[in-house]
Design a protein that fits this description.
Cytochrome P450; alpha+beta; oxidoreductase activity, acting on paired donors, with incorporation or reduction of molecular oxygen; iron; monooxygenase activity; oxidoreductase
Amino acid sequence: MTFGLGIHYCLGARLARVELELALAVTLRRLPGLRLAVPVGELRSEGGHLIRGLPELPVAW
């Protein structure tokens, strides 16, 4: 996840990061058995230098 750099830096970037951190913490706390359903080496990322991420994240619990 990216929010740009320099003059084009997103003003809401910090808020989005805090919200994401909180959402992940709550999810992991509510689903303590949550784990990756595939080996880490099988995860594939997409994107370039500024925007990249996982098109899917298989999980199991």
